[in-house]
Amino acid sequence: MDLRHRLRDLGSTAKDNDQMFADTRELVLGLLPAHNLAELETALVKVLRDAFDIEYASLTLFDEADEHSDPVRRVPESQLKGKLGSLLSRGSAGCGALRAEDFSFLFPGANIVGSAAIALIQNDGKSLGALAVGSSNANHYDSDMGTLFLEFAAEVIAGLLIRLDRT
User: How many CB atoms lie within 10 A of CB 42?
Assistant: First the structure.
């Protein structure tokens, strides 16, 4: 009986992993055609919402001066870390509940109490920005949740940002 339960659990885990791979594949393939930052951000938010059923998503790039013509939001790195440093206290990614003010900062226009997962987008040790996903459920993204997928997505975005910067 115990062996049957373990086999059933193993099958369920395999099915979940297959779905996660399919969704991750959709994310990467959805981002690759982007020719500029606006297209990258649009594709990112669309795939995260459609494939992963994520309620809120944002891409924020770090920049001291907002002198860019693209619509991607830019803030100083110190500002983001000042507001959301508690989520990043264990490294380059983290999850947790947010007050309405901090949730609205991360997801402009969403002035609610919620929860979020955030990962820094880095290249060669330099932080380029942050990728965040959020929920209106303050308990959805808790501090014990893993961030492996979000960190992978941030790595893919870092590679694409480097490519887009050279074009």
Answer: 16
- Give the C-alpha distances (Å, rounded to integers) separating 60 from 44, 91, 138, 144: 12, 18, 21, 24
| Gyration radius from the chain CA atoms | 17
- pTM equals 0.86
CA contacts within 13 A on the Cβ side of 61: 21
pLDDT in tens, 45-75: 999 999 889 999 999 999 876 566 667 889 9
Flag whether pLDDT at 145 surpasses 60: yes
Name residue 23's amino acid: D
Q: What element of type H or E holds 116?
A: strand 114-123
